[in-house]
Amino acid sequence: MPTTWQGQFISAAEPSEAGDPAPYFRREVEVGTGLRRATLHITALGIVEAYVNGTRVGDEVLAPGWTSYNHRLHVCTHDVTALLTAGTNALGAVVAEGWAVGELTWDLKRHVYADRPALFCQLELEYEDGRTEVVSSDSTFRVGTGPVRTAGIYHGETYDARLESGWAEPGFDDSGWAEATPYEWDLATLTDTGTDPIRRIEELPVVAITTSSTGTNIVDFGQNLSGWVRLTVTGEAGQTVTLRFAEILKPDGDLERETNRTAQATDTYILRDGEQTWEPGFTFHGFRYVEVEGWPGELDPAALTAVVTHSDMTRTGWFETSNPLLNQLHANTVWSMRDNFVGVPTDCPQRDERLGWTGDLNAFAPTASYLYDVRAVLGSWLADLAVEQQASGSVPWVVPDVLGHASAPTGLWSDVAVSLPWALYSEYGDLEILRRAYPSMVAFIRQVEGDLDETGLWADGFQFGDWLDPDAPAGNPSNGKTNPNLMGAAYLCRTTRELADTAALLGETTDAEHFGALADTVREAFRREWVTASGRLANESATAYALAIVFGILDPDQLAKAGDRLAFLVREAKHRISTGFAGTPLVTDALTLTGHLDDAYRLLLQTECPSFLYPVTMGATTIWERWDSVMPDGTVNATGMTSLNHYALGAVADWMHRVVGGLQRVEPGWSRIRIAPQPGGDLSSAKSSHDTVLGRAESAWSLSGRELTVTAVIPDGASAEVVLPQHPDGLVVEVGPGEHSWSYEIPEPEVPSEFTMDTKLGEIAKVSELWVAVAAVLHSHYPQIPLDDAGAHVAGMSLNELVSRIPMANPRLADELRETLAGFAPQV
Ligand code: BGC
User: Which domains are delineated in the chain?
Assistant: First the structure.
């Protein structure tokens, strides 16, 4: 990257209006003989495609991606030596509105960064004899228009192939074009952000074509994805093909565009004569289905290809089990990550948002850093967060910040400033990540510190809360069962501790002491406000318990009570999901930590709505924004928050990798590993594989009859503790690098083979499915019977004893209980 820039941004003379054609820029360049190397640095306010002598430069798409442009505008660098020849050459670029100029947010705000598309480029020529020449964007460039008639991120692209002209080749007559106008922009913003470029990553063929009620073709690519469609068509000049994109179909088979909200997501292609191939380059869509209108003749499936585009990251994590639904849930998580890492980690790729919502990423970061190497994309994103936080005093709710108002500090959302660097440090073991983020981490906690009450409680102020709790009112997703202030204060317990640990690692001893004391204070304040002495929470919800258990807020002697209450709530909800963005990533962990693995598996494997697997049973190929984005009758939930491609709730995959597969990081950077799979549910095998910074690490198990085989792969430079599950001698082994394997018979389960009216309630309560059924019978007759503490004072009582204590018990009760017990087959 050069240290000085010689040119300036250039544009058309007027600000751009919605629907304007994209400006095309060109000039000719004389190249002498003996060229050794030619380098093109190029960026834009907008999205840019560069051409040299009519050839498209490089393989990046949607360049320069989206950053906080007024602080950091990425410059792409290409070696173009092979594209130039001695003599006259043409340098050209198309710049469409993109994120800098076009519509952003549900308010469809225009001109957020600039009032027109503008180009910056610098071509550096180095000759064999040491001579150098520089050609930069300035008023020697001409500006005109071409086939790209209009292009926007949300609304799509219109391309008129009749206007193709050879504009990017030498000799083109640009006398009808205007002189480019200088555009004021601070060149100090130009930088190499180090992020991974956005590229075409994969192509998917058509899997089915159906006919809509109006007779148009509806094309199914079988996968909800982010990108666009390439078409090859033969026809006559002026014929128009329209492609309308959607994630889902209505029950009657027509396109359902509700989940796009106001994004028009429509590409229009106007043909020239003959056979032609086209794909857009200045928009992208989140879609599985495309309605095709105006196709000349019969639509051949081979004429259309879905092009999957996203940041070109290296895949590092895999997971597989014997359960196909679970495998699909995991595949959906991977797809939602891919579809939402388009330069910026976004909430969704299809509707009028596609914004870098901080809370979504905070929930998902541990999963993301297992699945892909995210250092480059999230490193750049954190740099944006830090500069914007410095400018406004707050961590924006979306990064890059385009909301246009101050973002109050909030748990899970704003505290990504602390937890993301911590998550990345934990994954990659690189202290530089923490060192770079440290001022931002400190600034966030200091800001919240100023908002605490006299006890140290974060008691008021806006919080998103347990966003999209399925029981929250449709119009108010923050207002679920968990008090939003409880949620904010719990997350603060985690972030203050992470910051104190960070300060200690960086040798900031005064800070370490200060934030360590603050972490103690906010934990104590939380406990005083929300936790009873025995470990019950004043606001009982699965999320509240999960936060208190996982964030270390409870004392060890309170964990059993809290875990039992959590298990009770999970059972009471019939192992359907009762949590939103804040709680969902933690509930399975909280159950596991408190000895309720069986309930964690039942929660994971439930298929009734709302549940982790319900969307899978409805054919989902990505993670939905809410548990019931699509209702059981196939209609889209009417709340408007119904994206079918939001990664946040896929955060459960992190638990699947660590607990189901059993691959756990103990030390930052994987130098110390724990292999501790916990088989459960109906699974007979599972495997987690991860390319750590030290190399491949793997944990796998499989069960055949009662023989369990566990295998572990440990990379060079790491050591591991292997906790062999259900081993008859409780074996724990220490291993070094290499591949290891163990096989052994697991003991028969302790579950009684038969349940009768004389079985103790405590025994019945250990089998959550049976307990749910028994509790349902009891409650249908006597809703007032408190059954939440079968682990405590009624644990020693049998059903016979319980029934005998109910004065004038309904005679049907004992019969129904007996039938329930008889109908239960214990799982072995
Ligand atoms: C986004 C979310 C985000 C939320 C916060 C939504 O519109 O899609 O995922 O976190 O707003 O308000």
Answer: 9-191 (2.60.120.260), 198-311 (2.60.120.260), 317-660 (1.50.10.10), 668-745 (2.60.420.10), 761-824 (no CATH)
According to the 3-state scheme, what is the secondary structure of 590-603? HHHHCCCHHHHHHH
Q: Single out the residue of 464, 469, 465 nearest to residue 576, CA to CA.
A: 469
Q: What is the mean pLDDT of the chain?
A: 95
> Which residue, by CA, sits nearest to atom 2 of ligand 1?
347
- Known catalytic residue at 128: no
605's CB contacts (< 8 A; 6+ apart) are: 323, 325, 326, 612, 613, 681, 682
750 annotated active-site: no
Instruction: Say what the pLDDT of residue 492 is.
Output: 98
Distance of CA 606 to the CA centre of its chain: 22
Question: In b/e form, how buried is each residue of 681-709, taking b as 16+ CB within 10 angstroms?
Answer: bebebbbbbbbbbbeebbbbbbbeeeebe
H helices of 247-354, where?
324-340
Please pick, among 157, 388, 625, 698, the residue that the annotation labels catalytic: 625
The answer to whether the CB of 347 is under 6 A from ligand 1 is yes
Q: 249-274 burial string, b = 16+ CB within 10 Å, else e?
A: bbeeebbbbbbbbebbbbbbbbbbee
Phi, psi (5° rounding) for residue 731? -65, 130
Set 60, 103, 353, 529: catalytic member: 353
Q: Whose CA is nearest to atom 8 of ligand 1?
A: 347
Smallest CA-to-CA distance from 686 within 664, 674, 703, 666 is with 703
Alpha carbon of 544 to ligand 1 centroid (Å): 21
- In order, the DSSP letters of 402-433 are -SSS-----TTTTTHHHHHHHHHHHHH--HHH
> What pLDDT is recorded for position 828?
40
Contact yes or no for 539/530 (Cβ under 8 A): yes
> Does residue 765 sit in helix, strand or coil?
helix
Give CA–CA dist 379/323, Å, rounded.
Answer: 35
**Whole-number pLDDT of residue 787:** 64
> 5-47 pLDDT, tens per residue?
999 999 999 999 999 999 999 999 999 999 999 999 999 999 9
648: Cα separation from own chain's centroid: 5
- Annotate 214-244 with DSSP letters as a single string: TS-EEEEEEEEEEEEEEEEEEE-TT-EEEEE
Closest to 335 in 3D by CA, of 646, 562, 118, 543: 646
Phi and psi torsions of 590, nearest 5°: -65, -40
What is the SS3 assignment for 713-735? EECCCCEEEEECCCCCCCCEEEE
Q: Residue 295 above 80 pLDDT? A: yes
The answer to whether the beta carbons of residues 349 and 643 sit under 8 Å apart is no
pLDDT at 789 over 90: no
- Give, rounded to a whole angstrom, the gap between the first and last alpha carbons of the chain: 63
